[in-house]
């Protein structure tokens, strides 16, 4: 019976078109088209077809088992010592051809991985995106602008409550009573406010006018 099973398995391998023999036979019922990758401790499940979208890529050569002998973990997944954070977008790119990133994900990180896995079209897309970014606002660190506003005690609450968007209240300095209104002394304050200014690509700073009554 054992020999029959062995022959059966070899025929199956031939039919599926596997070039590299499995070190570990696939569990019964799973098609050899599914591939497990263990990237830096995170397991990704994908298909041979997805990995081979990019014929020259490391991943395509890996799952065809040509010249790359990769270690496997105990589940039979290929072990790849890379950062799993950036592998998701790489795999999704191979699945649907679009680069989708979380907003806090660095394009440099993806570029690094795309170069490692040798995925040419993705490398070009990221480089284009990074060049576009160079022309936009994000590359210019914000400048802080400070203003000192002088006001009297009774005007203070109104001034703080009408401060326009983007202005932050920094500091209040009591400079004592300097004017007499009839018999009443009005305490004078210096109010320090700050705002972050982003340089727009044209080189002009955009600064909304200050609405507060000074």
TrEMBL record:
Pfam families: BTB_2
GO cellular component, one term: cytoplasm
GO biological process, one term: protein homooligomerization
Domain named BTB: residues: 33-134
Domain of life: Eukaryota
GO molecular function: cullin family protein binding
Protein name (Swiss-Prot/TrEMBL): KCD17 protein
Organism in which the protein naturally occurs: Grallaria varia
Native organism taxonomy: Eukaryota, Metazoa, Chordata, Craniata, Vertebrata
